[in-house]
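Protein: HPr kinase/phosphatase C-terminal domain-containing protein
Species: Gymnodinialimonas ceratoperidinii
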Amino acid sequence: MAQGSEDLAARASSQDGERLYFHASAVSVEGKGALILGPSGSGKSSLALALMSLGARLIADDGVWVEAARLQRPEAAPTLIEARGIGLLHAGPLCQSAPLALVVDLSRPEPARLPERRWGTIHGRKVELILAAGRTTLAPALCQLLRYGRADV
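Structure follows.
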């Protein structure tokens, strides 16, 4: 069973034609893109860094374009990622673009232990949505989800 869908495009910072710009971080895990949304200080960069330590490639930290259900690295995006309390780190191998497979929202907690699937839409395209505020051990589960999917029970 699945939860209703919400329009994630409304959370874009700006728009250029069909392209939406999000103040967000984004990574790719085995060719599948994850968009990490949340307010400043919510842990977007920290989650991206944790995912990178498990093999993800950075698309962009602190700002990313979404067009035609693809995450796209901005041309002028730095090749760095913020590590709070340490400084700016070189990101290593980057990913320029990946199909949007997952949106992680760090502004809202998930109240259920085993939640029904949630969905969001961007320009009418459905994408899985994970609510994750306050979750500190999220990266391994997200990697597993992006690599192998989720059981429907």
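Remarks: The chain is about 15% helix and 40% strand.
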